[in-house]
Amino acid sequence: MTSRPLRIVLTGFSGRLLALSLALLAVLALAAACGGGESAPAAGKIAFTSSRDGNAEVYVVDADGSGLRRLTDDPASDFFFAWSPDGKRIAFISDRDGNPEIYVMNADGSGQTNLSKSTGADVAPAWSPDGTKIAFTSDRDGNDEVYVVNADGSGLTDLTKNSADDGGPAWSPDGTKIAFTSRRDGNEEVYVMNADGGGQTNLSNNPAKDGGPVWSPDGTKIAFTSLRDDGPGIYVIDAGGSGLARLSAGGDRPAWSPDGTQIAFLSGGEENLEIYVVNAGGSNPTRLTTGGASYPAWSPVQER
Length: 304
Known about the structure:
Blueprint: E1 6-10, E2 18-22, E3 45-50, E4 57-62, E5 69-70, E6 78-83, E7 89-94, E8 101-106, E9 113-114, E10 122-127, E11 133-138, E12 145-150, E13 157-158, E14 166-171, E15 177-182, E16 189-194, E17 201-202, E18 210-215, E19 221-226, E20 233-238, E21 245-248, E22 252-256, E23 262-267, E24 274-279, E25 286-287, E26 294-298
Antiparallel strand pairs: 1-2, 3-4, 3-26, 4-5, 6-7, 7-8, 8-9, 10-11, 11-12, 12-13, 14-15, 15-16, 16-17, 18-19, 19-20, 20-21, 22-23, 23-24, 24-25
């Protein structure tokens, strides 16, 4: 079957309009080692999106490149996923009901269930550390906001409640805070708020576009994408807003390894995005995939 380009345009969840044209054909060729750096090779599993069969589907592969498995199999597009903290479930986006919605499935692909059930666009799911809640972005009320819902679909709550676009939620490891991206100051910035929506604070404070925040596993740092310094590039900042450092000149969608020693990210042109990994200190950037890939997400459960 001939692969067709997948074009996804979603607002808010990555801190800017996300327009990705991906022609994804090849199986991931994951490196077993990152070579002579400050950390050992990451273990566990990496989920990713591929359109090798003609439409976007969710796949998973062991971190050594073996055990490739297709988890979703639907004529619609399935993409942008998040592992539950215990590694037993995956939340993902599907437009199989006519609009993007949040689905949840078991890690083996079984039990696929529509969680959000909205006529709006629901995207960017993020599990709370205890696995009881999922934060996500929705435009169901007219603009992008960060919502939270219980893992069974009950208890929906709008956390951000702002007329500007807010999206791309990321829970702190202790579950007390959520980082997100907001346009309320006229450009995309990384914000942090309490898990109940209180205390919304601008963390990045820069005229350039900043977005897509993700917490380090120990909760002390936040990685994000920025267009500052002739970006895009991957940056890391202390959770309190100090200690900014650039890890990669180029790249998008950072994802921490479970042990916090490495960061996976996307890099390349719109038609040739690949997954790279870099040590958390910025050394040894290594290309992991060939043939196209998107939405890297490390399983929270490490297996060696």
